[in-house]
Amino acid sequence: MIIFNTPIFLYSICSASLNFINDYKEEFRNPHMIVPIWFPWNINEFWKYLGALFCQILLVTNSAMYYSSSTSLQLTFAFQISSFLKALQHHLETHGPNSKTVYQQHATIIQLINEYNLIFSGQMYLEILISPLQPCGFGTALIMALKENDPSAGSLLLATILIITTSFVVCFYGQEVSTQMENLHTSAYMNCWYEEKPEVRRDLLQMMILTRNPTVINYRRCFHFDYITFATVMQGIYSYLSMMAHFIDK
Known about the structure:
This protein is an all-alpha fold and 250 residues long. 78% of the residues lie in helices and 2% in strands. The chain has helices spanning 2-25, 46-95, 100-130, 133-147, 153-190, 198-212, 227-249; strands at 218-219, 223-224.
């Protein structure tokens, strides 16, 4: 949880510091905030500006705690499943396909992944759909700030990078599970299965079929969370920002 909290907290501090320095030079005539929200008081004065800045740091930090708690839970599950698959692969390579434990553990792992998909895949799918919208907005504001030499460009750049990272994290732990499933399939295929008894070959063949089209972290079996999905998200963001940059130039 600390791993996810720290970048967001550092972003709020760095962004607040950059905005404060630039606004102080301009005597708070056009103040910049971490997030553009409305305040019921005038923030063109020094102490009122500091109060608004402090409120925004608290808001961003509290939001980071809620986000990081959910993300940490999902990432912990992904690493646990990845560790189980690595141990299963090692057991298969060391003891061979004769052990019934291998197939029982594999079935248990598939059941865990299916239960995880039922609970969290909808939330992850919604996050993948929504998260590209924020970099598009911040990216457009960044392009306009660079064109106008606005000092808030540094803060917008940090925000864009941070938000893109959230999509990467979701796809990362999905890719981690998919990679270990592929490694397990390779280990099952590289065994001397042709020398085993028919019963053992049958069990091993069933596991190879399951790992050939593995049960991975996905949304209703039609949307997988992996690096391909992240590349698609980045392509969409790039296309949108290229179009906006063209319109802004005109």
